Amino acid sequence: MTRYTKSLLAAAGLAVAFSGAAVAETKVAVIMSDSGSANPFWAAVTKGALDKGAELGIDVAAVAPAGGETDVAGQIAMVEDQIAKGVVGIAIAPADTAALVPVLEQARERGVHVVFIDKRADMPGTYIGTDNIPAARLGAQHICDTVEAGSDVAVLQGIVTSTTGQHRAEGGRGGLVDCGLNLVAEQPADWDAGKALTTTENILTANPNLRAIFASNDNMALGAIEALRNAKLLDQVMVVGFDGNPDAAESILKGEMAASVAQRPAVMGAMGVEAVLKLVAGEELPDEIDTGAELVTPDNAESYR
Question: Which domains does the chain have, with CATH numbers?
Answer without folding.
Answer: 3-130+264-291 (3.40.50.2300), 132-262 (3.40.50.2300)
